[in-house]
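## Example record

The block below lists the input lines for one assembly entry, exactly as stored, with component labels intact.
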Amino acid sequence: MSIPETAKEIHLVDYPTGKPTPEIYEVVEAPVREPGDGEILMRVVFMSVDPYMRGRMNPHVKSYIPPFQKGEALDGGAVGQVIKSNSEKFATGDYVVGYNGGWREYYTGPTDGFNKVDPSLAPLSAYLGVLGMPGFTAWAGMSQILEPKEGDVLFVSGAAGAVGSMVGQLGKLKGCKVIGSAGSTEKCDWLTGELGFDVALNYKDYANSTELTKGLSQAAGKGGVNCYFENVGGMHLEAAINCIAFGGRIALCGMISNYNDTKPEPGPYNLTNLIGRGVKMQGFIVSNFMLLARDFYAEVGPMLAGGKIHFRETVYEGLEKAPEAFNGLFEGANTGKAVVRVAPDTA
Amino acid sequence: MSIPETAKEIHLVDYPTGKPTPEIYEVVEAPVREPGDGEILMRVVFMSVDPYMRGRMNPHVKSYIPPFQKGEALDGGAVGQVIKSNSEKFATGDYVVGYNGGWREYYTGPTDGFNKVDPSLAPLSAYLGVLGMPGFTAWAGMSQILEPKEGDVLFVSGAAGAVGSMVGQLGKLKGCKVIGSAGSTEKCDWLTGELGFDVALNYKDYANSTELTKGLSQAAGKGGVNCYFENVGGMHLEAAINCIAFGGRIALCGMISNYNDTKPEPGPYNLTNLIGRGVKMQGFIVSNFMLLARDFYAEVGPMLAGGKIHFRETVYEGLEKAPEAFNGLFEGANTGKAVVRVAPDTA
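Predicted structure tokens for the full assembly:
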């Protein structure tokens, strides 16, 4: 395959205040660098947009991953084909997925965090979703923090998202009663239909945490919520803590409702419930559990092959749509995993 | 020993709003009931006042223990002598400690939660403190939730209290750098003096969580706080979460700063730190770990006998002082364990 002299990448022009606006991005035509020793050149087919990227747009937050730099290309997960390899890890022509390489048409760089994928087992984009970081995130939160038991009541917010939809399905396979929240009738229908959730709550029907508490309490039944998988924050967390069972577990994966706040939101008013009810609330990011990636593939691969796990994707066409795809995460515009098709999927 | 016909007990006349006032209590002269089958009659020597009792004064809170009933005697931990036993568990003359029997001069009832104590090993009152529920609470939170390692930075709030003073000493014995907060110079001097804490912060020197964060951050050093034992809530929790290390642990034992609030306080504004830093925050009450009581005595008994654990008590004289002793918990009036001497310690 020929290597172009230049290609497009999306730069961060300025850090956003509140919800990112189009002005903070710039599409730049930049030279395509030849790979150095141990490096690869990848033609990106799909790039991922994920909520954690909003955190990298805050320059002053102490977090597990450094902020994006102004005037440089953004970055993130991507799947594509190796065009040229100076690495023993991959051959030219291999399809690979990595935590880098997004927000651009071509990636040149090291192979850390890249793995070879098999396009005959699942569509390439699935390696950014159900078989990628979101799927692994769901699996890790369930298996390492919530540890749901048969008969437990599991509540997951952001249930129609890439992570949440996987959480709920894993819960059903464990024998849980699964309650999900999402932001539209269509999403709720998908949850209780194809995905087999027991109850779906459209959170837009609930004005505040008191109302949501009533709805969740009714859905959970007398024993309350044993496991809560948190993607949203705000009134969702407060309602879940109101309904949490004795000995309950809460996995904090994300709080997307807060990510665009220009001033910090107060935490829930009912944290003392965690004391009286002996509740564990644990935050995590998937890299905390990276050593378990093999276990994830071993468990989830066969589930997917066996048709026990379903997934949807919202596909945006063309690199220039990446900012729109990203904002879709905060606007509830996406169902399942949101990806951007950067080049035709030739696999 | 002779059994009196009547004795004093303290009744709850009304549920408090905010800080309990003297009017909510009534000292009642009530008949002393003969023990039934399997029951004991105990002459109370010391009764305990503990922060959790404030929760039992809220009639509508769903918690691990039912609320006190209006017009009935209050209840709580007590240590005393068995005057008459219809139980095979104890003989007349035995000294016993139990989770019931407080707020009265004589206790008649079942022996659940009562254990025999040896007054020659430690003063009777110690079985309500360092060798009792607060000591066990400290040990359980440390060994079962925080799991501090040598070199970890441990922060404990309410550090001059019955639980906190034990937490810090256990931390020093584990090889931690220990930081405690308390509300007076005298208390802080005790922490860094007799108890061997590395740093004591007088929280009254800090106007808000931002200020306390600076003080704590400086005390903790660059690596931050690995373990936080929470007794206070409010700005303490927010400051601790600001300073928490990657992979940190937080044991939620109490939030005494909130217990008299007439409207709920918001939670900390920085809970998303728990996600990015992979932090576990676990609430608990000591009864979650009751099966480990034997391990507690096996570990802490020799520490105490060997002079490795120090403790102080604030002793109030006479049953009528119980309401004052109780309010002292919220006013910072007590150092170490607060107890009420109900009868002369004849042991």
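The interface with chain A takes residues 55, 61-64, 233, 237, 246-247, 252-255, 258, 264-285, 288 of chain B (CB under 8 Å). The two ends of chain B are 14 Å apart (CA to CA).
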